[in-house]
Amino acid sequence: MLQGSIVTIGEILIEIMATTRGQGFREAQPLVGPFPSGAPAIFIDQVGKLGHPAAIVSAVGDDDFGFLNLDRLRRDGVDVSAVAIHAGAATGSAFVRYRPDGGNRDFVFNMRDSAAGRIGATPEAHAVLATAGHLHVMGSGLPVPAVFNMVRNALPAIKARGGTVSFDPNMRKEILERADGKAAFDMVLAAADYFLPSGEELQLVTGEADESRAVAKLLAAGVREIVLKRGATGASHFDRNGRTDAPGFAVDEIDPTGAGDSFGAAFIVCRLMGKSPAEALRYANAAGARTVTVQGPMEGTSTFAELDAFMARAANGAQA
Ligand code: ATP
Ligand code: MG
Predict the structure, then answer these.
(1) How far apart are CA 138 and CA 168, in angstroms?
(2) pLDDT tens, position by position, 163-184
(3) How far apart are CA 76 and CA 316, in angstroms?
(4) Backbone region of residue 170 per phi and psi (left: phi > 0; alpha: psi in -120 to 50; beta: other values)
(5) Which of 98, 195, 292 to mutate to test the pocket of ligand 1 (most atoms within 8 A of CB)?
(6) Does the model's pTM come out above 0.85?
(7) How far apart are CA 45 and CA 169, in angstroms?
(8) Which has the closest alpha carbon to 287: 201, 229, 200, 215?
(9) In the predicted model, is pLDDT for residue 115 greater than 90?
């Protein structure tokens, strides 16, 4: 298998969270943050922490929010040479508040008009993509034309040199309902070795309500491995050899944001290291579980030593 870094393209944000539950932000309220964030950034931070070569193509403003993110990614081993710093632009941000019922959340995003909306195909981006052995595509970034174009160009180049591709749809159904959104999505899916949907995304993507029929459709279309994230209950892996289920680890959930991204990173790193799907699932479940126990989307990413210690405690029956 091709050795090379894992590269992703997409938004770097800071996240500011309401400390109380309620309906959005139409009143003054206590907040906590800024936390480093952005789904691709969380993913690549987790890759870096696991010691695998990692790089992100992105953009920040020349402000504290940008430096906070760059410092964190650098500290955790991520190559940020292809993160452009746009003078005068603000780093992207997301404000999030959980609804009283717990599951749903309200967001105020500043993305399109931020530095994150100006990600471009710079010479540094080309250099990083040229050394990639694996490209992780985040569906949420595809509506940005420059991101989509870079992905479209990178896919055949990476595959031609023996590299691999993973795809986390991380996608709202509004995007799929647009004709160009669906076409972009289908193009990435056709190139994906690893497809990492969660919840109803499997159904949205395939148009099949039945899980096994949806999986069969994707395998027939050429997706090599499908990993279905099932929140607290764990995850399942499907390939031509069949199905493997792995239960979630019992933890107290403080903040679920980022679980899917650190899960995906741990799974991909393990597979690229040659670990079996079952072993990769276990590490990925542990990475996801650790993420939800800490406030802030990137605060709970893990090293292999932390994952091994966590899994050993869980094996002894302790709530981790
Ligand atoms: P995200 O909010 O980051 O988009 P997602 O919807 O992509 O998340 P989830 O299924 O919510 O993905 O979480 C990913 C993985 O994290 C799960 O498969 C599981 O391994 C772990 N996980 C998530 N929530 C919990 C929890 N409450 N307890 C234990 N493990 C969890
Ligand atoms: Mg997700």
Answers:
(1) 5
(2) 999 999 987 666 667 767 788 8
(3) 29
(4) left
(5) 292
(6) yes
(7) 19
(8) 229
(9) yes
Pairing of strands 92-98, 54-61: unpaired
Q: State how far the Cα of 187 lies from the Cα of 189, in Å rounded to an integer.
A: 5
Counting every residue, how long is the chain?
320
Closest CA relative to residue 268, chosen from 101, 46, 104: 46
The Å distance, Cα 262 to ligand 2 centre, comes to: 10
Nearest to 264 by CA among 69, 4, 117, 54: 54
pLDDT at 295 over 60: yes
DSSP per-residue codes, 258-301: THHHHHHHHHHHHHHTT--HHHHHHHHHHHHHHHHTSSSTTTT-
Residue 283 near ligand 1, beta carbon < 6 Å: no
Low-confidence winner among 22-26, 85-89, 109-113 (lowest mean pLDDT): 109-113
List C-alpha distances in Å: 249 to 130, 184, 285, 292, 303. 38, 35, 7, 11, 17
Instruction: State the pLDDT at residue 320.
Output: 55
In whole angstroms, give the CA distance from residue 22 to residue 106.
9
Rounded distance from Cα 105 to ligand 2 centre (Å): 14
Share of the chain above pLDDT 90, in %: 85
Among 13-17, 109-113, 216-220, 248-252, the least confident range: 109-113
C-alpha angle 178/184/188, rounded to 5°? 145
Ligand 1 pocket residue status of 202, Cβ below 6 Å:
no
Q: Read off the pLDDT band of 204 (50, 70, 90).
A: confident
